[in-house]
Amino acid sequence: MTHATPIRGEHLSTALSLATSGVPPLPLRVGKVPFGNCLDCTANACGGRPNMKTPGPCLCPAPCHGWAAATTDPDIIDSSAWAAPWREAAGVAYHPGGAGLTVVDLDDAAAIAWARASLPATRTVATTRGEHWLYRGVMPSANRVRPGVDIKSTMAYTRWLGPGTGPLTALPDAVRALVVREPAPARPGPVTVPVPAGGGRCPHRSPVFLARGIAMAEQRIREAAGAVHATVFGAFLAVLSMHGRCGCLTEAHTQRLFAAAQAKGESPRHCADAWANALTRLGM
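Predicted structure:
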Protein backbone atom coordinates (compact mmCIF):
# COMPACT_ATOMS: atom_id res chain seq x y z
CA MET A 1 0.00 0.00 0.00
CA THR A 2 1.48 3.36 -1.04
CA HIS A 3 0.59 6.62 0.66
CA ALA A 4 1.21 10.06 -0.86
CA THR A 5 1.99 11.43 2.62
CA PRO A 6 3.39 8.74 4.94
CA ILE A 7 2.36 9.45 8.52
CA ARG A 8 3.78 7.50 11.43
CA GLY A 9 3.60 7.77 15.18
CA GLU A 10 2.55 5.79 18.20
CA HIS A 11 -1.15 6.70 17.96
CA LEU A 12 -1.31 6.03 14.23
CA SER A 13 0.44 2.69 14.62
CA THR A 14 -2.05 1.74 17.33
CA ALA A 15 -4.96 2.76 15.11
CA LEU A 16 -3.71 0.72 12.16
CA SER A 17 -3.20 -2.31 14.40
CA LEU A 18 -6.75 -1.94 15.77
CA ALA A 19 -8.19 -1.64 12.27
CA THR A 20 -6.41 -4.84 11.23
CA SER A 21 -8.11 -6.67 14.10
CA GLY A 22 -11.55 -5.31 13.16
CA VAL A 23 -11.72 -2.53 15.77
CA PRO A 24 -12.59 0.86 14.16
CA PRO A 25 -10.38 3.62 15.68
CA LEU A 26 -10.40 7.42 15.58
CA PRO A 27 -7.99 10.04 16.97
CA LEU A 28 -8.74 11.92 20.18
CA ARG A 29 -7.52 15.42 20.94
CA VAL A 30 -6.69 16.81 24.38
CA GLY A 31 -9.65 16.42 26.70
CA LYS A 32 -10.54 12.96 25.39
CA VAL A 33 -12.86 14.39 22.72
CA PRO A 34 -12.92 13.83 18.94
CA PHE A 35 -11.59 16.40 16.52
CA GLY A 36 -14.05 19.10 15.50
CA ASN A 37 -15.62 19.30 12.07
CA CYS A 38 -13.47 20.46 9.19
CA LEU A 39 -14.33 23.71 7.40
CA ASP A 40 -16.44 21.90 4.80
CA CYS A 41 -18.41 20.20 7.56
CA THR A 42 -18.80 23.09 10.03
CA ALA A 43 -22.26 23.05 11.62
CA ASN A 44 -22.88 19.84 9.62
CA ALA A 45 -23.15 21.85 6.40
CA CYS A 46 -22.12 18.64 4.62
CA GLY A 47 -25.18 16.84 5.93
CA GLY A 48 -23.25 14.64 8.36
CA ARG A 49 -25.19 13.76 11.51
CA PRO A 50 -22.85 12.45 14.21
CA ASN A 51 -25.72 11.55 16.54
CA MET A 52 -27.54 9.39 14.01
CA LYS A 53 -26.84 5.76 13.12
CA THR A 54 -24.86 6.79 10.04
CA PRO A 55 -22.81 9.94 9.44
CA GLY A 56 -25.09 11.09 6.63
CA PRO A 57 -24.14 11.89 3.03
CA CYS A 58 -20.82 13.52 4.02
CA LEU A 59 -17.93 12.08 2.00
CA CYS A 60 -15.22 14.02 3.83
CA PRO A 61 -12.46 11.56 4.82
CA ALA A 62 -11.30 13.65 7.79
CA PRO A 63 -12.21 12.36 11.29
CA CYS A 64 -14.73 15.09 12.02
CA HIS A 65 -17.95 13.29 12.92
CA GLY A 66 -17.23 11.80 16.32
CA TRP A 67 -17.88 8.07 16.64
CA ALA A 68 -19.09 7.96 13.03
CA ALA A 69 -15.57 8.81 11.83
CA ALA A 70 -14.19 5.54 13.22
CA THR A 71 -13.17 3.19 10.43
CA THR A 72 -11.23 0.00 9.77
CA ASP A 73 -10.09 1.20 6.32
CA PRO A 74 -6.29 1.63 6.56
CA ASP A 75 -6.24 3.81 3.43
CA ILE A 76 -8.42 6.37 5.24
CA ILE A 77 -6.65 6.07 8.59
CA ASP A 78 -3.22 6.58 7.03
CA SER A 79 -4.23 9.21 4.49
CA SER A 80 -3.18 12.82 4.04
CA ALA A 81 -6.66 13.93 5.14
CA TRP A 82 -6.06 12.42 8.61
CA ALA A 83 -2.46 13.66 8.84
CA ALA A 84 -3.08 16.69 11.07
CA PRO A 85 -5.37 14.87 13.54
CA TRP A 86 -2.81 12.11 14.06
CA ARG A 87 0.01 14.65 14.53
CA GLU A 88 -2.08 16.48 17.15
CA ALA A 89 -3.74 13.41 18.71
CA ALA A 90 -3.51 12.96 22.47
CA GLY A 91 -4.90 9.44 22.31
CA VAL A 92 -6.83 6.83 20.35
CA ALA A 93 -10.50 5.98 20.70
CA TYR A 94 -12.63 3.32 19.08
CA HIS A 95 -16.27 2.58 18.30
CA PRO A 96 -17.19 -0.45 20.47
CA GLY A 97 -20.40 -1.20 18.58
CA GLY A 98 -18.45 -1.29 15.32
CA ALA A 99 -16.23 -3.97 16.85
CA GLY A 100 -19.20 -5.98 18.13
CA LEU A 101 -18.50 -4.98 21.73
CA THR A 102 -20.16 -3.29 24.69
CA VAL A 103 -18.08 -1.43 27.27
CA VAL A 104 -19.34 -0.99 30.82
CA ASP A 105 -17.43 2.11 31.92
CA LEU A 106 -16.93 2.03 35.70
CA ASP A 107 -15.77 5.42 36.97
CA ASP A 108 -14.79 4.69 40.56
CA ALA A 109 -14.22 2.08 43.25
CA ALA A 110 -17.90 1.99 44.25
CA ALA A 111 -18.94 1.25 40.65
CA ILE A 112 -16.31 -1.49 40.39
CA ALA A 113 -17.56 -3.06 43.61
CA TRP A 114 -21.12 -3.02 42.24
CA ALA A 115 -20.00 -4.68 38.98
CA ARG A 116 -18.09 -7.43 40.79
CA ALA A 117 -21.19 -8.22 42.81
CA SER A 118 -23.75 -7.89 40.00
CA LEU A 119 -22.18 -8.75 36.62
CA PRO A 120 -20.42 -11.83 35.21
CA ALA A 121 -16.64 -11.57 35.01
CA THR A 122 -15.26 -10.61 31.61
CA ARG A 123 -12.28 -8.89 30.00
CA THR A 124 -11.18 -5.89 32.08
CA VAL A 125 -9.19 -2.79 31.14
CA ALA A 126 -7.79 -0.48 33.80
CA THR A 127 -8.62 3.24 33.40
CA THR A 128 -7.38 6.33 35.19
CA ARG A 129 -10.03 6.14 37.90
CA GLY A 130 -11.79 2.82 37.37
CA GLU A 131 -12.19 0.00 34.85
CA HIS A 132 -13.74 -0.86 31.49
CA TRP A 133 -15.55 -4.19 31.42
CA LEU A 134 -15.82 -5.48 27.84
CA TYR A 135 -18.57 -7.86 26.70
CA ARG A 136 -19.10 -9.56 23.34
CA GLY A 137 -22.32 -8.16 21.81
CA VAL A 138 -23.84 -4.77 21.06
CA MET A 139 -26.63 -2.69 22.58
CA PRO A 140 -27.73 0.98 22.78
CA SER A 141 -25.31 3.27 24.59
CA ALA A 142 -26.37 5.30 27.62
CA ASN A 143 -24.69 7.49 30.22
CA ARG A 144 -25.26 7.42 33.96
CA VAL A 145 -27.31 4.24 33.99
CA ARG A 146 -26.44 4.11 37.67
CA PRO A 147 -23.93 6.04 39.82
CA GLY A 148 -20.51 5.93 38.16
CA VAL A 149 -21.61 3.64 35.31
CA ASP A 150 -21.87 4.41 31.58
CA ILE A 151 -22.59 2.04 28.70
CA LYS A 152 -20.59 2.51 25.48
CA SER A 153 -21.56 0.39 22.48
CA THR A 154 -23.46 1.57 19.39
CA MET A 155 -23.23 5.23 18.37
CA ALA A 156 -20.52 5.98 20.95
CA TYR A 157 -16.76 5.99 21.34
CA THR A 158 -14.41 5.17 24.18
CA ARG A 159 -10.68 5.44 24.74
CA TRP A 160 -8.37 2.61 23.71
CA LEU A 161 -6.34 1.78 26.82
CA GLY A 162 -5.00 -1.60 25.78
CA PRO A 163 -6.42 -5.08 25.13
CA GLY A 164 -7.17 -5.79 28.80
CA THR A 165 -7.03 -9.07 30.64
CA GLY A 166 -9.34 -12.05 30.83
CA PRO A 167 -11.61 -13.78 28.30
CA LEU A 168 -14.53 -11.98 26.68
CA THR A 169 -17.94 -12.94 28.04
CA ALA A 170 -21.19 -12.73 26.08
CA LEU A 171 -23.20 -9.60 26.82
CA PRO A 172 -25.48 -10.52 29.76
CA ASP A 173 -29.10 -9.52 30.25
CA ALA A 174 -28.05 -7.73 33.44
CA VAL A 175 -26.16 -5.17 31.35
CA ARG A 176 -28.91 -4.83 28.74
CA ALA A 177 -31.39 -4.19 31.54
CA LEU A 178 -29.41 -1.12 32.64
CA VAL A 179 -30.71 0.94 29.72
CA VAL A 180 -34.32 -0.22 29.88
CA ARG A 181 -36.45 2.72 30.86
CA GLU A 182 -39.70 2.62 32.75
CA PRO A 183 -42.73 3.15 30.50
CA ALA A 184 -43.58 6.81 30.16
CA PRO A 185 -46.63 7.84 32.16
CA ALA A 186 -49.85 8.29 30.24
CA ARG A 187 -50.18 11.73 28.77
CA PRO A 188 -52.65 13.98 30.52
CA GLY A 189 -55.85 14.90 28.77
CA PRO A 190 -56.19 18.03 26.63
CA VAL A 191 -55.32 21.26 28.41
CA THR A 192 -57.90 24.01 28.15
CA VAL A 193 -56.26 27.32 27.31
CA PRO A 194 -58.23 30.49 28.08
CA VAL A 195 -58.14 33.04 25.28
CA PRO A 196 -58.84 36.60 26.48
CA ALA A 197 -62.30 37.77 25.49
CA GLY A 198 -61.02 41.24 24.70
CA GLY A 199 -63.30 44.23 24.45
CA GLY A 200 -60.58 46.85 24.59
CA ARG A 201 -59.54 49.17 21.77
CA CYS A 202 -57.70 47.32 19.00
CA PRO A 203 -54.29 48.92 18.37
CA HIS A 204 -53.59 46.93 15.21
CA ARG A 205 -53.38 48.90 12.04
CA SER A 206 -53.60 45.66 10.04
CA PRO A 207 -53.65 41.88 10.58
CA VAL A 208 -49.96 41.91 9.64
CA PHE A 209 -49.10 43.53 12.96
CA LEU A 210 -50.58 40.63 14.93
CA ALA A 211 -49.08 38.03 12.59
CA ARG A 212 -45.65 39.60 13.03
CA GLY A 213 -46.02 39.54 16.81
CA ILE A 214 -46.87 35.83 16.83
CA ALA A 215 -43.99 35.06 14.47
CA MET A 216 -41.54 37.02 16.63
CA ALA A 217 -42.69 35.14 19.74
CA GLU A 218 -42.25 31.79 17.96
CA GLN A 219 -38.74 32.77 16.86
CA ARG A 220 -37.81 33.90 20.38
CA ILE A 221 -38.84 30.50 21.74
CA ARG A 222 -37.13 28.53 18.96
CA GLU A 223 -33.83 30.34 19.50
CA ALA A 224 -33.77 29.87 23.28
CA ALA A 225 -30.37 28.43 24.20
CA GLY A 226 -31.32 27.88 27.84
CA ALA A 227 -33.91 28.76 30.48
CA VAL A 228 -36.59 27.57 28.09
CA HIS A 229 -39.48 27.83 30.55
CA ALA A 230 -38.58 31.45 31.41
CA THR A 231 -38.24 32.27 27.72
CA VAL A 232 -41.65 30.74 26.96
CA PHE A 233 -43.26 32.72 29.80
CA GLY A 234 -41.62 35.93 28.55
CA ALA A 235 -42.83 35.32 25.00
CA PHE A 236 -46.38 34.60 26.17
CA LEU A 237 -46.31 37.72 28.35
CA ALA A 238 -45.17 39.89 25.45
CA VAL A 239 -47.90 38.60 23.13
CA LEU A 240 -50.64 39.00 25.73
CA SER A 241 -49.52 42.47 26.78
CA MET A 242 -49.77 43.69 23.20
CA HIS A 243 -52.62 41.60 21.78
CA GLY A 244 -54.49 40.14 24.75
CA ARG A 245 -57.01 42.88 25.52
CA CYS A 246 -58.59 43.60 22.14
CA GLY A 247 -59.96 40.13 21.38
CA CYS A 248 -57.81 39.52 18.30
CA LEU A 249 -56.00 36.48 19.67
CA THR A 250 -57.56 33.20 18.60
CA GLU A 251 -57.09 29.57 19.57
CA ALA A 252 -55.06 29.13 16.38
CA HIS A 253 -52.57 31.71 17.65
CA THR A 254 -52.16 30.00 21.02
CA GLN A 255 -51.74 26.63 19.31
CA ARG A 256 -48.85 28.07 17.30
CA LEU A 257 -47.17 29.42 20.44
CA PHE A 258 -47.72 26.18 22.35
CA ALA A 259 -46.34 24.15 19.44
CA ALA A 260 -43.16 26.25 19.42
CA ALA A 261 -42.76 25.76 23.18
CA GLN A 262 -43.37 22.01 23.03
CA ALA A 263 -40.80 21.69 20.24
CA LYS A 264 -38.26 23.01 22.78
CA GLY A 265 -39.29 20.37 25.32
CA GLU A 266 -42.07 22.09 27.28
CA SER A 267 -45.01 19.87 28.21
CA PRO A 268 -48.61 20.91 27.45
CA ARG A 269 -49.14 21.41 31.18
CA HIS A 270 -46.09 23.66 31.49
CA CYS A 271 -47.30 25.68 28.51
CA ALA A 272 -50.73 26.08 30.08
CA ASP A 273 -49.17 27.14 33.39
CA ALA A 274 -46.95 29.73 31.68
CA TRP A 275 -49.96 31.10 29.78
CA ALA A 276 -52.08 31.28 32.94
CA ASN A 277 -49.27 32.97 34.85
CA ALA A 278 -48.87 35.54 32.09
CA LEU A 279 -52.62 36.28 32.22
CA THR A 280 -52.42 36.68 35.99
CA ARG A 281 -49.38 38.96 35.75
CA LEU A 282 -51.32 41.23 33.38
CA GLY A 283 -54.51 41.09 35.45
CA MET A 284 -56.49 39.51 32.63
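Summary: The chain has a mean pLDDT of 83.
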